[in-house]
Amino acid sequence: MASPKYLVGESYGGFRVPRMIRLLQTEFGVGINGAVLVSPFLDSGAEFDPTFSPMPWVITLPSMAAARLEREGALDKAHMQPIIDYARGDYLRDLVKGRSDPEATERRIGHVTALTGLDPAFVRRAGGRIEVEAFLREATREQGKIASSADSNFLIFDPAPDAPDLRAGDPLVESVLAQTTSAMVDFLSREVGWHVGAPYYTINFDIEDRFQWRGEHGEQVDSQDLRRVTALNPKLHILIAHGWNDLSTPFMASALLVDQLPAASARDQVQVKEYVGGHMFYNRMPSLLAFHDDAEVLYRFN
Known about the structure:
Blueprint: E1 6-10, H1 16-27, E2 34-38, H2 55-71, H3 77-88, H4 90-97, H5 102-116, H6 120-125, H7 132-138, E3 145-147, E4 155-157, H8 171-192, H9 205-210, E5 214-215, E6 218-219, H10 224-232, E7 237-243, H11 251-259, H12 263-266, E8 270-275, H13 285-299
Parallel strand pairs: 1-2, 2-7, 7-8
Antiparallel strand pairs: 3-4, 5-6
C-alpha cells in the first residue's frame, strides 16, 4: 500500500482514468501518484456539435495538416506550431464571423487548402470546414485510396471509389482485428492458462453502439474529473500523449482542454506531448523512444 501507484488508459480509456483516480482516492483511500493517458478522449462536449460550434473544426484541422506534413517528411514541432496557432487564432475567428465577413471566408478557404493539400474546389464547397470522413477519402482520392481516422497516413485501396459516400470501415482498425484477437486468445489460453469457450472481442461493436453519451446529469464524458483530481492532489502528475495525425482522438482537443485547467492546480501537473504518428504513434520507433523518455520523467517525480 505504501508503494507508488500509476494508472494508464488509452483512447476511450482516457476519460476513465481521472474518474478512477477520484474514486480510488475518495471512496477507497488509495492515492495515485501519476497517470499516463495515451491518445485519450477526454471530453465529448467540444466535438459533437459542428453545426454551431467552431470547436470541432479547430480540433481536427491541425491533425489534417499533420498528415500532409508527414507525407512530405516535414512533420515536427517547428512546422506544427504555426498551424496550431492559426487553428486557435485566425481560423477560429474567421469561423465565428461566418457569412458576415466574405473576406474571412476567402481567407479560411485559402489557408485550409494550403494546410491540407486538398483540392481547392472541394475545400471551397466545404467552406473551409472539412469533415473527417471526407478528408480521409479526399486526401488520397487521386491514388484511389482511403485513410484511417486512427492514423491518416495508413492507407488501403478504396473498395468503392465511384460510390458517392465511403463504403468501408476504418482501414487500420479492421486490418489489426484478426491478428490482435489471435494474439490475445493465444496469450490468455497458453500463457495465462485461462480457457474459455466464449469468443474474444477485441472491439465489441454492440456495446459501443449502446453506450450512452448523455445521462440524467448531462454529459457522461467530460473533463471535470481531471479538474477535481489535480486540485485534490497537488502531487499527482499526468502525462497526456498524442500522435499529431490522429483524427479519432485529435491532440488539439487535449491541448485546448488542458489550457483551460486552473493554472494554480495544473500548471506543472498535467503535460501534453505530441509525437509523429497517429492513434498508435508508438508503432513508429522514434516516437516510441521519445514517449519512453517523457514517461520516464513522470515516474521520476516519485
